[in-house]
Amino acid sequence: MSPPQPPRLDVGLPRVSADPIAEAFTSRVPLMPWQDKRPVPHAEMADTWRRLCDLSPSAGKRLAYVHVPFCANHCLFCGFYRNRYRHEESARYVQALIDEVRRDADMQCVGQAPIHALYLGGGTPTALETDDLVRLIEALRAELPLAADCELTLEGRILHFDDDKVDACLDVGVNRISIGIQSFDTRVRQQQGRRASGPEAERFIGDLIARDRAAVVIDLMYGLPDQDMSVWSRDLETALSLGPDGLDAYCLALFPGTPLHQAVTKGKVRPPATLAEQGRMYALACMRLAVAGWRQVSNSHWASGTRERNLYNLLIKSGAETLAFGSGAGGSLGRYSYTVDTDLQGYLQAQRENRKAIAGMLISDEQQTLRDWVAGQLETARLDVAALLRRWPDLVAKRTALEALLDSWQKAGLTERQDDVVTLTTAGRFWSTNLIAGFKEKFASLKGVSSTADVP
């Protein structure tokens, strides 16, 4: 007879432990953008898209995302690789993108309501040829209603991003550059597919910062194979010594299907850090950056001064409306989210036919604003319970259940509380996606929870 199995832990109910950052949950819950939504039938997508195009822009700050689906190689940890970059693809793809932007710019849903953050992501936008990248940025600035203080982020990597390309992008208005470093350790970098050595990465970031013309953000990752605590500590010290404006510290997620997952499964690469080790790496980052006087903007992002706002990432996590352009891009309009065809040839064909290459569409239920609001609050390590109940008064009747959930977080060492404001501890920040998922499981699916729209 098999031994009895322990009961399944509720996703929102952590274990009480002396070491909450290592033991509060048995796994981290990923938050996927398609959760809590249902697909729009394929036959209805074209008509739905036309209706959305005729809507006026939603209230609140808006975003735009441009996707460049090319990379020089497939880094082991990455689950977003689509197409190997070839220089002959650059001009054709950029022209298709510009055509898409110009067509969409005439839509009512784009309108004149300002876009507060524009993000060029990928893939690797900086892989594009310099002239093509410049004319793309120029077209985006000319065609879209960008706010005067719009955060214009260019995501990139060291490879193919030479001095002339850097300066050309700065000259046409890029004011934020985010570089995927992952680690400054040469062995860790090259094992994951990064070609530049650690010292080369340091020199590149140093030269970028020395220009003093844009916010420079370093993306680091913790938990990679062969990146033990001493390597991670050196990564943090190197980043701090360079003096960037922002720093991202992302936890490695070993998703099935990625080259890294396959390499680990086959024994070709050492297993990455355990969940407990990842938690301690995160705690080290929080402590070291706090000592250095950095401000924690969100659960995974820090700023050294006022130049860095991290606006795009903060807004999109709280459900801001997002216009999407390019093969593989994802956006949202009202209750609908949509994806642009990830197949490059399908995308290019749609542009030749003068149509939006919508490949998928989802619609959320009436609780999406509640889920987004709570996610946005917890992303910044706090939950204003009084504001929650003012905005969703139907939750007052469920306050006993709400207090029980919040109490479980506090007993587990994940939160602290002062009156009606709940703040996340370092352990709570590490497990924040579990807390968001737990709240959604308990409350956001309940019927009869309506919003008071006129309450801020």
Automatic annotation (TrEMBL):
Its cofactor is [4Fe-4S] cluster. GO terms for biological process: methylation. It comes from the Bacteria. GO terms for molecular function: methyltransferase activity. The keyword Translocase does not apply. Keywords: Iron, Iron-sulfur, Metal-binding, Methyltransferase, S-adenosyl-L-methionine, Transferase. Residues 56-292 form the Radical SAM core domain. NCBIfam families: rSAM_HutW. CDD domains: Radical_SAM (cd01335). SMART domains: Elp3. InterPro entries: Aldolase_TIM, Coproporphyrinogen-III_oxidase, Elp3/MiaA/NifB-like_rSAM, HutW, rSAM, rSAM_sf. This is Heme anaerobic degradation radical SAM methyltransferase ChuW/HutW. It comes from Marinobacter azerbaijanicus.
